[in-house]
Design goal:
By secondary structure, the protein is of the alpha/beta class. The protein is built from 13 helices and 8 strands. The structure holds guanosine-5'-diphosphate (GDP) and magnesium ion.
Length: 307
């Protein structure tokens, strides 16, 4: 992992820590565990955008631990909280291992408009290319011409081939062509970018289902991974979006984008709990190198550390 990207990661987590989790020092600094301790913890998690359901579940579980361990001092909760939060984050499989499982390994990028799909597709293309893989991009977001251009610009910059349709064209046909072309050209990883907005949510979900189905016709087993890009600055809104996407297609993991500008990192805890999905990558900026494999231990350390 590059030193630069690691610095961005630490800086990104600093926002969530400073705005919300830094309160832990005063919460745990008091002597006795009182109702106020729990109230303040609850408020802190809500502020971090962990969501009501996840927050309540964290507090309940912590109370149980405190009871069974016989904790009376607030400071005794520090370690318990760390363990509690760590247990809520799944450890993702190393994506470099994941993409070796098929050839071509086909990735479908989904998510609402503006979440960072196209940028993330480019970031992934760069990572895999740098790792020596033959990569191809497909612009199956045919809703806007600008979306096709955007991916093409990235492809040119990264020297990665882009299969694109025309504005208003059939996105499933683009995905089909890209998949057969990837097979013919001996591509290792095909990344399909999709639309995040259509005339209606219904149309969007129907189109995604079709892209998914047709990709599987071009290559049985494909897409091998469906990754949803969630904008970390939108917190709990992103959660409801993710639930809608999960109903349309089988989603395998989350890419949490814009962690560099978000103070709502607490949503990471509800992604695991409420969506049951691992966070695979974190987006940390607008450049192609601004992507890091999500490290749960490091995440906990980063948001909870005291200075
Ligand atoms: N700061 C920051 N900006 C990002 C990140 N990922 C994407 N963006 C920006 O978010 C905006 C929308 O991204 P785009 O990839 O076009 O989203 P899409 O509509 O889902 O394809 C663009 O201005 C990107 O540069 C990230 O990790 N950090
Ligand atoms: Mg896009």
């Amino acid at each position: 992992m590059g030193e630069n990207i690691f610095k961005k990661w630490i800086k990104g987590l600093d926002k969530t820590r400073k705005v919300t989790f830094s309160r832990l020092a005063s919460i745990f600094g008091t002597n006795e565990i009182t109702n106020e301790t729990w109230d303040e913890l609850e408020e802190m998690f809500l502020q971090a955008d962990a969501g009501v359901e996840t927050t309540e579940s964290i507090i309940e579980s912590m109370k149980k631990t405190a009871r069974s361990e016989g904790f009376t001092k607030a400071s005794e909760l520090t370690e318990a909280l760390q363990t509690e939060l760590r247990n809520r984050l799944q450890t993702p499989e190393n994506p470099m291992d994941t993409i070796n499982k098929a050839k071509p390994f086909v990735i479908l990028m989904v998510g609402v408009n503006g979440s960072g799909k196209t940028t993330t597709a480019a970031k992934l293309a760069k990572q895999y290319k740098d790792a020596g893989k033959k990569v191809m991009l497909a612009a199956a977001d045919t809703f806007r011409a600008a979306a096709i251009d955007q991916l093409q610009v990235w492809g040119d910059r990264l020297n990665v081939p882009v299969i694109a349709g025309v504005e208003g064209g059939d996105s499933a046909a683009v995905a089909y062509d890209a998949t057969t072309s990837a097979i013919a050209r001996g591509i290792d990883v095909l990344i399909i970018d999709t639309a995040g907005r259509l005339q209606s949510r219904y149309n969007l979900m129907e189109e995604l289902k079709k892209v998914y189905r047709v990709t599987g016709k071009a290559l049985p087993g494909a897409p091998h991974a469906v990754w949803i890009v969630l904008d970390a600055t939108t917190g709990q809104n992103a959660m409801s979006q993710a639930k809608a996407f999960k109903e349309a297609v089988k989603v395998d993991g989350v890419i949490l984008s814009k962690l560099d500008t978000s103070a709502k990192g607490g949503m990471a805890f509800s992604i695991a709990g409420e969506l049951g999905l691992p966070i695979i990558y974190a987006g940390l900026g607008e450049k192609s190198e601004d992507l890091m494999v999500f490290d749960p231990d490091n995440f906990i350390e980063g948001v909870l550390k005291t200075e």
